[in-house]
Amino acid sequence: MRDAAAMLLGDRNAVLGAVFGTTAAPSPWAWSSATAKDGNWRFGRNYRVKIDAETHSAAKDQLVLGEQAWPDAAAFTVTSIRPQARDEHVLVLRCAAAAVHGLGAWRRRGLGWVGIAHDDGPVTAAEVERLIALRDGSCG
Question: Looking at the structure, do residues 120 and 61 belong to the same domain, yes or no?
């Protein structure tokens, strides 16, 4: 979500650090672990190996094993843990969540598409306008 917010606001926007934390001040928000909505996780493994360009064989110590968990739907919560969390933080969190489409690591940023939906419904046009104003510095 931080990466999505940085793409929306610009990675030097002060609100980004205020919402997601910096080395000087941690985030005023806490994320729970995701839980499968139906309680059913499917697990799998994915292997990757680096090939040596000269020998065209597996490079030494370059085999990677990744485990994956795949629910049909999962839920997590984001909770304010400090009183200075403001309405603009909720705005950034909602818009950033809506902008997330892939999770994971490696070269492909995840092995599937995801969507994060807020329980209160989708981001509205008015929220997008407020986020643009926040990005452009025309609101406080």
Answer: no
58, 50 Cβ separation under 8 angstroms: yes
CA distance 135 to 6: 10
Q: Does the reported pTM lie above 0.85?
A: no
Spell out the long-range contacts of 121-127 with Cβ–Cβ below 8 A and sequence spacing 24 or more. Answer: 122/98, 123/94, 123/95, 123/98, 127/91, 127/94, 127/95
* 88 and 59 housed in the same domain: no
Longest dimension (CA), the chain: 59
Residue 132 has pLDDT above 90, yes or no: yes
Expressed as residue numbers, the domain containing 55 is: 39-72
23 and 80 housed in the same domain: yes
Q: DSSP string of 19-42?
A: HHB-SSSB-SEEEPPPEETTS--E
